[in-house]
Write a structure and sequence with these properties.
Number of helices: 4
Keywords: Kinase, Nucleotide-binding, Transferase
Radius of gyration: 19 Å
GO molecular function, one term: ATP binding
Protein name: Adenylate kinase active site lid domain-containing protein
Strand content: 5-15%
InterPro entries: Adenylat/UMP-CMP_kin, Adenylate_kinase_lid-dom, P-loop_NTPase
Length: about 140
């Protein structure tokens, strides 16, 4: 997400005025598990998730048969450290937008359960784009 720090939020304020900010509150363990399950084929950049989009053969790219690697940043210990650092940096940003009355928070663990609520909010704030035939 962006902005992640108060400095980034202040820089964003200088170029535009936000009227809606969405915060997705996902449990720490869910984030850690999802990020730690990510593996990549280095040559192509293809990303696999061992829970949601696993390769046909574990540890091997579907197209080339070459080995997959896990980034150091995606190892469980590193993910936990990144999430703690993000939480500390993001807290003042969340408080800023909450104080402005433009923060909308959604909680959950599954995209397909959170998305309908986000979509409803966005649909109420953004007018539909009409095609040329409808204008």
């Amino acid at each position: 997400g962006f902005p992640r720090t108060l400095g980034q939020a202040e820089a964003l304020d200088r170029i535009c005025e936000l009227d809606l900010v969405i915060s997705l509150n996902i449990p720490f363990e869910t984030l850690k598990d999802r990020l730690s399950a990510r593996w990549v084929h280095p040559a192509s950049g293809r990303v696999y998730n061992m829970d949601f989009n696993p390769p046909h053969i574990q540890g091997v790219d579907d197209l080339t048969g070459e080995p997959l690697v896990q980034s150091e940043d995606d190892r469980p210990e590193a993910v936990a450290a990144r999430l703690r650092k993000y939480k500390d940096a993001a807290k003042p940003v969340i408080e800023l937008y909450k104080s402005r009355g433009i923060l909308h928070s959604f909680s959950g663990t599954e995209t397909n359960k959170i998305w309908p609520y986000v979509y409803t909010l966005l649909s109420s704030k953004i007018p539909p784009i009409l095609s040329d035939e409808e204008n």
